[in-house]
Design brief:
Length: about 475
């Protein structure tokens, strides 16, 4: 059960957060409804308690019924369970994931990344994905500038302070991480030392080494590299950590080393970032990747499909289907990839060619916001009450004055036509009334709508307001 708790936590918080903070959590005791979890350092204990305790408690309880309390303790730091007593020398530069195949080939198993730091001064970046290169990055109007800048800094002809730091921002799935990996991969091919870190890893590396009083080692390490890449920089939190981040930025940039970061928003909107750090981040080149236009979506889809087809002979998708998918999915690169995988799965499982109809079925779950909004009875009651100047409790009450009966009946009618609820269910939600009362109300309003234009307009308006 403990293994399941950890697996679920990993799924809930994501690979990176899990590796950084929760991977070394162990179950060390379970008695009289009290569970004891342990971590190797005091720092981890306080960090987990501050950020993840609620989630851990919830997940834990769902696997271990009857546990009333959870305590986190610090276990002896001498030896980690399942780890050799002595670790290999720290690696400054982590090699790419080793995956070289074309995009769309078999996905490497979730990177078994090295621990980002430890109580000692060991520290490594996250691995680079070897498939995320400039070659596999499809160019379009919305990302050309960001791509050009990333390629430029990967080659870093020193002294281009104009590009330092390079700050790339865009919504989710628009290719930020892809470009960062591409820059890191390119720099390493040229023999430069590049480190790729997510915000979580940066924080972990810094704070863990600070607690172990080796923070200078962490700083020296970072300052000794040619290219520092930090992804999702908006997540770097905490005053001390942000200031340290600022020092690292300054030291690198002043020494002519390149820094590139990605974020989900422009520097001016990093509200919780230290002011000086924010202005330093804004002081180089800031480029945005705009939402993918249709050409780019078709480009990305075609590239993926070509790669997948190479590995799956017989899998073919017509231009008509490509353009259908590109239109149906306007969101981002991740969903486009998801669509390709679903098309492949569908074609493989059914052994039939992909048509627009089968594509529609295959990608249905990726096509968002096409479904009508689900309307709740409670919302109907509130809206109708406010339109007729009564309160919602009047509508639910037994009162039978005309001023209350009419809005109540209208609300019941709307509940019948706008929700999938049954008459008895609607009756229950209207203060426990019988279903015949609801039926009576529905019939009455239906009849009235026939001749009463004022009422029909009124009801039509209410419908629209609810559907918006
Ligand atoms: P972000 O970091 O901005 O959220 P990612 O870089 O993770 O987005 O992109 C999501 C997926 O879409 C990745 O698999 C990426 O390779 C792909 N992708 C995004 N833009 C492009 C592009 N221009 N060319 C090829 N693949 C892309
Ligand atoms: Mg990303």
């Amino acid at each position: 059960a403990w293994v399941r708790v950890k697996r679920r936590l990993r799924a809930e918080v994501g690979e990176d957060v899990f590796t950084s903070w929760l991977a070394r959590l162990e179950l060390s005791g379970l008695e009289n409804g009290q569970a004891s979890l342990s971590v190797p350092t005091r720092f981890l204990k306080s960090w987990i308690e501050a950020h993840y305790l609620d989630r851990i408690v919830t997940t834990f309880r769902s696997e271990f019924a009857g546990v009333s309390g959870i305590a986190i303790t610090v276990r002896s730091a001498l030896r980690e369970p399942g780890q050799p007593a002595r670790r290999p020398a720290p690696r400054l530069v982590v090699e790419g994931g080793g995956a070289t195949g074309p995009l769309g080939g078999p996905q490497p198993v979730a990177a078994t990344s090295p621990l980002p730091g430890s109580d000692r001064d060991e520290f490594a970046g996250a691995p680079l994905d070897g498939r995320l290169t400039f070659d596999s990055f499809v160019l379009g109007r919305s990302n050309a500038l960001a791509q050009a800048a990333a390629e430029r800094i990967a080659q870093n002809d020193r002294g281009t302070a104009l590009y330092n730091p390079l700050y790339i921002h865009a919504g989710v799935g628009l290719g930020k991480t892809h470009l960062l990996h591409a820059a890191g991969n390119a720099a390493r091919i040229d023999g430069r030392r590049a480190i790729y870190l997510t915000a979580d890893r940066f924080m972990y590396g810094f704070v863990a080494s600070l607690k172990a009083q080796t923070s200078h080692a962490f700083k020296e390490r970072l300052r000794g590299i040619d290219l520092l890449i930090i992804d999702d920089v908006q997540f770097i939190q905490g005053k001390t950590i942000q200031q340290e981040f600022g020092h690292t930025l300054n030291a690198l940039i002043d020494a002519g080393r390149q820094v590139v970061v990605a974020a989900d928003r422009p520097p001016s909107e990093l509200e919780s970032m230290d002011e000086r750090v924010r202005s330093r981040l804004a002081g180089g080149l800031v480029v945005e990747i705009a939402p993918l236009d249709e050409d780019l979506r078709i480009g990305i889809l075609s590239q993926r499909l070509t790669a997948v087809a190479a590995a799956h002979p017989g899998f073919e998708v017509s231009p008509a289907v490509v353009s259908y998918v590109a239109n149906a999915i306007s969101t981002n690169g991740r969903d486009l990839e998801g669509a390709v995988n679903r098309l492949l799965a569908h074609a493989t499982l059914t052994g039939t060619a992909v048509t627009i109809e089968t594509a529609e079925t295959a990608i249905r779950d990726l096509v968002r916001n096409r479904e009508p909004k689900r309307i709740r009875i409670e919302d109907i009651q509130k809206l109708v009450a406010s339109r007729y100047n009564v309160s919602r409790s009047d509508i639910l009450s037994e009162r039978r004055t005309a001023a209350v009966v009419k809005p109540r009946q209208i609300a019941m009618y709307l509940s019948k036509v706008l929700t999938l609820r049954s008459l008895p269910e609607i009756g229950r939600r209207f203060g426990g009334r019988d279903h015949t009362t609801v039926l009576h109300a529905v019939r009455k309003i239906e009849k009235a709508l026939d001749g009463d234009t004022t009422l029909s307009e009124e009801v039509e308006l209410l419908k629209r307001m609810l559907q918006e």
